[in-house]
UniProtKB/TrEMBL annotation:
GO terms for cellular component: nuclear chromosome. Pfam families: SNF5. This is Uncharacterized protein. One of its GO terms (biological process) is chromatin remodeling. InterPro entries: SNF5.
Amino acid sequence: LENADASSEKFADVYAEDSELSLGGEFKTAIVYCIREQVQIYQKSLFRVGHPQMSESTACSFLPSLASGIRAMDQVKSFTPLLNYL
């Protein structure tokens, strides 16, 4: 996570070209996206268990914790699913 030389784009280029699967260029974007998504999930997991942040740029991307997850009774109807018959 803290390695500045690590690049998901470089990995996707090498993996797609050297792979025995003969992956085309259209898969590079999907590979890069999956890597970035996994790193982001890992960073969020570290944050939730109280691990210190690696940098200030990642710390500002997290939302603050909710004080309460319970809605007021007058708001419940607005957030309740409604089944309509056609």
